[in-house]
Sequence to fold (227 residues):
Amino acid sequence: MTIRNWFKFFFNALWIGGFVTAVAGLIVRWEFFTNYLQAGEIGQFVGALLWMVFLGFTMSVVAQMGFFAYLTVHQFGVNIFKTLTLWNWVQLLIIMVVLFDLIFFRFRLTSEDTERSLLYLFLLATLMIVSGITAYLKAQWTKKHTLISALFFMIVITTLEWLPALMVREGNIDTWVTILLFPLLAVNAYQMLALPKYNTMSDRDKERLEERRAARRKRAKTASSKS
Fold:
């Protein structure tokens, strides 16, 4: 990917993270924001909203770091296990382990707190549905064998990026666990689906650059022969 296209890719992902976090924050913490509006404290409302956008920028950067780390891990996996088929089976196994860990250790579901359990089941369903749709689209738009890899990235890598929030045990953590999932999913889905487009654009830019260089060499050679 060329530097110019990487900047486009980076800033588009950044704005997606900021926008999705702001919307999720308004929905999940609506009572918090309406207190400012009811009190007529518009400046405080805007400041709190901008803070949510900045948080989304941070989540976007985390997601982008995770994405490029995954590209490296994926290549190592293919090289270590020799075939893509075997690496896909390993990825499926890791997906099942991660989901098991989420349900039985991270979410800490109990029958005593039905409301909280329903919230985390909703978050799990959101993670699975968005991941499934993204992986399906990735396979349709590129190659069929990318389905498992895309599913692995969307579930496993998103969970790893989400893990710091899940490990917190104090405060109003359920609210933040809910808010932070959505920018991670949105940015990761964007990265997974948009990367081929930017790679193609970069290839075209390189071809045009090479054509211009060839034209300059031709003109220089022509001018040299005339002189």
Summary: Residues 3-187 form one domain.
